[in-house]
Amino acid sequence: MNSLLAIVIVIQVVTALIIIGLVLLQHGKGADMGAAFGSGASGSLFGATGSANFLSRSTGVAAGVFFVATLALSFIGSRPQSGGVGVMDQAPAKTEAAPAAPAAPAAAPAQAPAKGAGQAADIPK
Length: 125
Description:
Blueprint: H1 2-25, H2 33-37, H3 50-78
Helix pairs in contact: 1-3
């Protein structure tokens, strides 16, 4: 399963790079073919309009392959892993709850504080 995932990721990255290259090679609608291949576009490698069609079709094919690779990655990622270890499988097991703390002892009856040094009753007048 991991080798299939690796192959699909490689296909997706390669097609992404191909799409980037093909889009950068193409010219906008306002660009003249003569500017790309010299003064005479009819003498170019693909003919007068052949390069535009070739690059457009190649970009479409690469985009289709990229789309299929993306769907394959989402399908592979959504399937449960058989025998794989997930993040939650690595978490420590929950132990038994700690015993409850003992109840607080009953409050002792309020006593008057003992008079100690420094209190007002001990200061001579």
